Each structure stands twice: as structure tokens, then as C-alpha cells.
Amino acid sequence: MDAGEYLEAAVRDVLTAAEPRVDDQVGHAALLLAVAGALDEADRLVTQWLARTERPVAALAADPVRARAWAMLFEAWGARPDWAEGLPPLDLDAEERAHTVSLRRPVSDLEGVLPPGPVAEVVKHVAPARPDRVRTALAEGDLELWASLAGPHPDVATLAATRALAPALVAGADPLGLRDWAPGCAGALVAALHERYPPDLGSWPELIAAILRLRGGVTPPPPASESAIRSAELRLGVSLPEDHREFLRTCDGLPADVVFPRLLGTADLRAEDGVVVLSDPAVLLLSSGNVVEVDPVLGTTVHPSFRAALVQHATLLAQAT
Fold this sequence. Notes:
Elements: H1 3-16, H2 19-35, H3 39-53, H4 64-77, H5 92-104, E1 107-108, H6 118-126, E2 129-130, H7 133-139, H8 143-149, H9 156-160, H10 166-170, H11 182-196, H12 204-215, H13 226-236, H14 242-250, E3 262-263, E4 270-272, E5 275-277, E6 279-280, E7 284-287, E8 290-295, E9 299-303, H15 306-320
Antiparallel strand pairs: 1-2, 3-6, 4-5, 5-7, 7-8, 8-9
Helix pairs in contact: 1-2, 1-11, 2-3, 2-4, 2-11, 3-11, 5-7, 7-8, 11-15, 12-15
């Protein structure tokens, strides 16, 4: 498969497709990550999908083969993530027998040519049949042959549902050679989920509480008083935007995070040539009502408000969890 083309199409679907298609793409991608030996990235993707959509996790495994695949992977892994509690319990011995039959089932060259119906059923029974080479490779435990035959859209659910192969997949066999690509894939899809389903961060106290929770429970400074805010404005020679005043009324600054600077409180705010420095280091600046974020790597971003800059910070923190 072409990993770049696959990810581009998957991200596009997550951003724009109908919700059943979003669920289908996320479900397939999670299994793709899992069979690459990146169960941690699969877990991250599913957890973020659950948080953003609040849909039942069974929507990711509506196909019985996908449900079987997760069951076999969890058995091989020896553990189940919390989200897996939403999947129906399965009799793995019965599932293994059913899967073995499906792997050995012959296919007709006419299969899929005719629309479903009585004629198609008759043709299916009388047309010449042959072994399916891709499924036969799985039945014989030949991961290398399976990968060579899988084509641009590998059936990773049928692969993972093959009980005899699940331990090798969990151990990192990575038949499609995607292990190094997996973190970037998960990150791109998580970012797309956050763009499609932006979190409702509510009031200023709720936004600050969400940021601190995502940072690991840091205690914020106490709120600034109205007199402290007014004194800062007099010293700076500017009126602060109302949303920044609301921030200061919620907490008088914030400590630095590994990916975000220290936000200055009323006593430390300063102005240089009409530009108010909002952070230390001076990478967040208030200019003409906009908040300018200067990043030496990513360049300059202009946020329409101070709150917008913090919402973006909260979103990036959530994507990283």
C-alpha cells in the first residue's frame, strides 16, 4: 500500500465524510496501526475518537471480522484497554473455527460481478471456484506472502482475526513495514478529529481547568483583582482586551508548559513600542487587538484573540494525550 495516499484519503474522510464513513476509517486505521505493532498508537486514536464523538465503540467494529480481530489481538496482548469494554464479548474458539472456514472458502471469478440477488446466488454455486491466494497465505501463516498479495487496500481485519498470527503481530512482526509511520498516522488522524469535532471548552474557568488537567494537574495562581488589572493597564498605557481581562480575573498568569511559555500576570506584563508582551519568553504579543504567536520553527501565527491562542494550546495538549 502507498502509506501517503492512504493517510491523505483517511484524513480527508475524517474531515468531510458522513459520520459512518468517519467511524469506518478510524476503525480501519486503528487496526492498521495495531497490525504494525503500534498498539499504543491504535489505543490513542480510538481514545481520541471516543472523546471527540462520544459514539459507542462498537461503531468501530460493526463488521464481525473487525470485532473478531480486536478480540484476537487482545488475547495475544494479554490485556484490554479501557475502551474495549464497549466491545461485545466473543467465544474465541468459535470465532477461530469460523475464521478458519472463511480463510479456506473458495472464491469465484464471477463473485461481486452480479448485484446481490437470486441470480447471483445461483451463479455463486455453479461457477468455477478457486482458492483465494490472499486468505490462503493467512491460513498457512505466511505473512510475507500475504503482504506481497494484499494490494493497495490490505484487509487488516482478516489478518488480525487470524488467531495463530495475532501473537506475531502484537510482538511487532509489522508485515506491511508501517511501524515508523504509525505515530505520524495516528497524529494526523487525531488532529483531523479535533478539527472536525472541536472541544467545547466553555467559560474561562472551564478552559483554564481543562488546560491544567491536560498538563497534569498544575495549580494555577489566584485571580487578579480589578485594581491590579487597572494598575497594569495604566502602567502599560493600553486597555487590555476584555478576554484577556477575563483570563486575569480567572488566574493571574500561568506557569510554563513544555510546549507553551509562561503567561505573565498583571505585575509582569510589559509594553515595548506599543506592543504588549504577554509571555516569557516573549513569543506571545498583543498588537492591534490581535495576539501574535512567534515560533522560530513553525513561523508566526496571528490569533484573533487571547482566548483563541489558549484554545489552540488546549487542543494541542489534548491531541498529544
